[in-house]
What does this fold into?
Amino acid sequence: MMAREVVGQCRRTWRRIGVTREDAAEMAAELTADLDAARQDGRDPQSFVGGDPTGFARAWASERGVVPVRYLAGRLMLAALFGALPGSFAGMFLVFGLPSDGLAQVLGRESDAVDLPGWLDICFWAMSVAFAWTGTLAASSAVLRYHADAARQITVRVLAAWLPLAAVGAAGATALVARHWGYPYGLGVVLAEVAVPLATVIASLGLARVVIVRRFRPVADPARSAQGAMVF
It folds into this structure.
């Protein structure tokens, strides 16, 4: 890989993670000079950046503190949704699918559905919740790592404690509504009982991220701001 290609890939990475044009231009100039010096010493550009220009650019920008802390709430919510879906669907299948007559017929039990004891239902629900929780945190962490977010660790820690509380509150509210309407049953009702708590949890995740970013961002120095206004 040529030096120009390495610098170009680093520039694309800096643009993706939100580095300003001024900082990116300064870092690109430094990197170009370093690559020229390395070439004179007999090193190729790819080995200079450790074989990973994207990772090098992300780590260098984070080290210099030029990566802004952005909300990324939409991307975070979308990633969390996809991370939570496997566990949620697994829980739906274990609780609603196993006792169904359709599955009993597939298993050759005619109309005799698989009868699960109550404690096993609870265990299945707990497992699905744990998988959904783990998938949500893993997906959220991956998105923030991809964007070299400086508040990634604190975001994941807060979400790890907040998401179970939000899930319990959303599930409890859904149960109260279902009780008020006499526990109606049907495909649409079941999907709503799953979708509403899930949407509530995902929305609360986005709100938590907004609060974290606002608290994490440094307060602007008035003197420095006034000086910048005079310069520009």
Notes: The two ends are 39 Å apart (CA to CA). Residues 187-216 form the longest helix (30 residues). Confidence is low (pLDDT under 50) at residues 102-107, 219-232. The chain is about 75% helix and 0% strand.
